[in-house]
Design goal:
InterPro entries: PPR_At4g14850-like_plant, PPR_rpt, TPR-like_helical_dom_sf. It comes from Actinidia rufa. This is Tetratricopeptide repeat (TPR)-like superfamily protein. With 408 residues, this protein is mostly helical. Among the domains are: 151 residues; 101 residues, no CATH class. It contains 23 helices and no strands. Helix 12 runs antiparallel to helix 13, helix 16 runs antiparallel to helix 17 and helix 18 packs parallel to helix 20. The longest helix has 14 residues. The two termini are 50 Å apart.
Length: 408
């Protein structure tokens, strides 16, 4: 396999002590305590089913302890199931410990552990594992490529793209979708954007994920017209959009200030069974706010169940940019009263609202509250409004502090 060493040399080195990549069996809790009563071992097929259907870490640990007790902890299928289940239950450290205890992980174990790191945005660790796989002469498969490409910046993605070509699997739907994503994320470069579209157009079959990736790439790089054109093409081919598609399209409508298009998408959500959750709701709030329809934004916001801080921020910023200072401040009070912790984005909206209304003392109060109570370090965006306040204030120290902060 002459390609393995040259490719590995182009990838980042495996860290000597990464976390959780160096976890081993000692990283797991004492499994003897989880073992429970002695019992006869179940058939591997039954154990595999129990592992897959485990709903809690404690339940999975008991099964794991039973495997060790009965000498089944090196069973390849069962250890693979354990590795995947620990990841799905948000214990990546346990998953890595199981992976590292495997003598010779196969391509499926590598693909699963790389994917587990990728979905948590642990890109460096995912790349380290990919290099380790190549170094151990394990041939990557389509699942490996689709997982590792999620972690790739553009230049590294090009290198891995060349390897997918060598293996003749670049035309696989999942690999091709991941490649479209890599080039779309690098879409601020004309060549990357062109390559992304070329790959997309060359696919014989495009699923909703691929359409969403391409539409989102246009949206993220300020090409809303292309995003909406592709969305219309997608609907014309009878491909039903997903939540991710809808969120990207609503962002495009907001960028254009295209209120009627945004309302059409809203009606499509209602009439076509698209699940209205906090992500879709927040995208609607953001779209209506950017299009100047605060009444619609407020109605959608009120309809969102289990609002997260992103939803609150969208409505607060919407009020702020349109000069509804009192509404923004009242919503902030309500949010905090419900136990939602504000973020730096929250205070950008609040400080902007105060600046627009000339509320100097209120602005300073929120600025100090941001750092003193919530431990949020001011960013350049937070200082913008304060230069205006300071010019109206006789407090030289505050004015000097604001000017110094603005130079950060």
């Amino acid at each position: 396999m002459p390609w393995a060493t040259p490719l590995a040399s182009q990838l980042p080195p495996i860290a000597a002590a990464t976390t959780p990549a160096t976890a081993n069996r000692s990283s797991l809790p004492p499994l003897s305590a989880a073992a429970g009563k002695q019992c006869h071992p179940l058939p591997p097929q039954k154990l595999a089913s129990l592992i897959e259907n485990s709903k809690s870490i404690s339940q999975l640990l008991r099964i794991h302890a039973s495997l060790i007790r009965h000498g089944l902890d090196d069973h390849p299928i069962l250890t693979f199931k354990l590795q995947c289940s620990y990841s799905s239950l948000n214990r990546l450290d346990y998953s890595v410990a199981v992976f590292n205890s495997t003598g010779n992980p196969d391509v499926f174990s590598y693909a699963a552990i790389i994917h587990a790191h990728s979905v948590k945005n642990l890109h460096q660790q995912a790349l380290d594992l990919y290099v380790q796989m190549l170094t151990n002469y394990v041939d990557p498969n389509t699942f490996t490529f689709s997982a590792i490409l999620k972690s790739c910046p553009l230049q590294l993605g090009k290198t891995i793209h060349s390897q997918a070509l060598k293996f003749g699997i670049d035309s696989d739907t999942y690999v091709r979708t991941a490649l479209v994503d890599v080039y779309a994320r690098g879409g601020d470069l004309e060549s990357a954007r062109a390559t992304s579209r070329l790959l997309f157009d060359g696919m014989e079959e495009r699923d909703v994920v691929c359409w969403s990736v391409m539409i989102n790439g246009y949206t993220q790089h300020g090409r809303p017209n292309e995003a909406l054109a592709l969305f219309r093409q997608m609907l014309g081919l009878k491909v039903k959009p997903s939540e991710a598609t809808i969120v990207a399209v609503l962002s495009a409508c907001g960028q254009l200030g295209a209120l009627e298009s945004g309302r059409w998408v809203h009606s499509y959500i209602v009439n076509n069974g698209i699940r209205f959750n906090v992500h879709v709701g927040t995208a609607l709030v953001d779209m209506y706010s950017k299009c100047g329809s605060l009444e619609d934004a407020s109605l959608v916001f009120d309809a969102i169940q289990d609002k997260d801080v992103v939803a609150w921020n969208s409505m607060i910023v919407g009020y702020a940019i349109h000069g509804f200072t009192e509404d923004a401040l009242q919503l902030f009070t309500t949010m905090c009263g419900r136990g939602v912790h504000p973020t730096d984005i929250t205070f950008i909206g609040i400080l902007s609202a105060c600046a627009h209304a000339g509320l100097v003392s209120e602005g300073w109060r929120f600025f100090h509250l941001m750092k003193g109570k919530y431990g949020i370090e001011p960013k350049i965006e937070h200082y913008g409004g304060q230069l205006g306040w300071s010019s109206e204030s006789e407090d030289y120290d505050e004015r000097q502090w604001s000017a110094e902060g603005a130079r950060l």
